[in-house]
Amino acid sequence: MLAGILTGLFLNNYPAIVKINEKLLSLAIYALLLLLGIAVGSSEKIISNIYNLGFQAIIITLGAITGSVLVCWMIYKAFFHLK
Amino acid sequence: MKGTLIILAFFAVGVMLGVSGELPANMISSDWSSYALYLLMFLAGVGIGADRKSWHVLRAMNLKIFLVPAGIIIGTLGGVTVVSVLLPALQLREVLAVGAGFGYYSLSSIFISRLHNDSLGVIALLSNILREILTLILVPLLVKYFGKLAGIASGGATSMDTTFPVISKYSGKDYAIISLFSGIVLTMLVPLLVTLILTIGK
Predict the structure, then answer these.
(1) Is the ipTM of this structure higher than 0.90?
(2) Domain that holds residue B116
(3) What distance in Å separates residue A83's CA from the closest CA in chain B?
(4) Exposed (0-12), middle (13-18) or buried (19+): which is A74, by Cβ within 10 Å?
(5) Is B11–A41 a contact, with Cβ atoms under 8 angstroms apart?
(6) Nearest C-alpha of chain B: how many angstroms from A26?
(7) Of the partner residues B17, B76, B126, the one whose CB lies closest to the CB of residue A57
(8) Looking only at Cα atoms, what is the longest distance across chain A?
(9) I need a surface site. Which of A53, B99, B169, B174 has the fewest CB within 10 A?
(10) From the candidates B34, B65, B123, which should be mutated to test the interface with A, based on the most A CB atoms within 10 A?
(11) What is the pLDDT of residue B92?
């Protein structure tokens, strides 16, 4: 990752290469999600457990959103809402 | 939104391929995804380094703006810690790792499935997609009742791209730059935090 950031700083002046990088990044993400999908689909443990996993995901999301909104509400009142 | 659908389509096709059981055994082995992950890390790094707008936004800001991503990190990790009592099947660090995706579902689910296991990777994918979708839906309400940072807080890492338009619409132009900044910082931190959480305390 660090090697990538340094390369990116160096490549700053070559927008064409940066464009290509964005394409490659999308491709790498697609490939990995396809592979994750394959791993998930071939795992009986996950498939038979999918409702449970979904339920856990929903609970975590609600906790994450509620927590971050509340903390930022306090920050907003204390530091941003001054005018 | 189109990006989300494409990503989901790739995942869904993978699931179907896996369920069908028609794949050669070496496709399922994990070496492929490790190499792809290294490539992904490198490419993500190039993207961050080469993004002039990001570095410019980072330089132009005063210190107060750092409170926003910091608050989102504290709030998210605190919030998921509280709800983790409802999830006896998961360890605290597993719940924290999913939360530390901050809505960046593609990268966080890949990392978590590689570093930990596929089950938690699926939870991370679902949970973080849901964070993006709920944010898109709830921003108007959140901003109305919890102030102009609420949409940015809910969006997490997505406040720089997918949820940015709706946030800047409801929180206003002054907050658009904060939204970009916070999303950029969180996006950069996702791989770092997820790795830290899963490897420390093991």
Answers:
(1) no
(2) 31-199
(3) 13
(4) middle
(5) no
(6) 9
(7) B126
(8) 57
(9) B174
(10) B123
(11) 95
Domain ranges of chain A: 1-44, 49-83
Q: pLDDT per residue over B25-54, tens digit each?
A: 555 555 666 666 677 777 777 776 777 666
Within a domain: residue B3? Answer: no
Q: Is A67 helix (H, G, I), strand (E, B) or coil?
A: helix
Nearest to B43 among A2, A24, A45 (CB): A24
> How big is chain A, counted in residues?
83
Instruction: Check A54 against B75: CB less than 8 A apart.
Output: no
Phi-psi region at B134: left, alpha or beta (left = phi > 0; alpha = psi -120 to 50): alpha
Instruction: Confirm if A12 and A21 have CB atoms less than 8 A apart.
Output: no
Q: What is the pTM of this model?
A: 0.78
Partner residue opposite B23 with nearest CB, options A25, A38, A74: A38
List Cα–Cα distances, B53 to A12, B50, B60, B159, B174, in angstroms.
Answer: 11, 9, 11, 15, 17
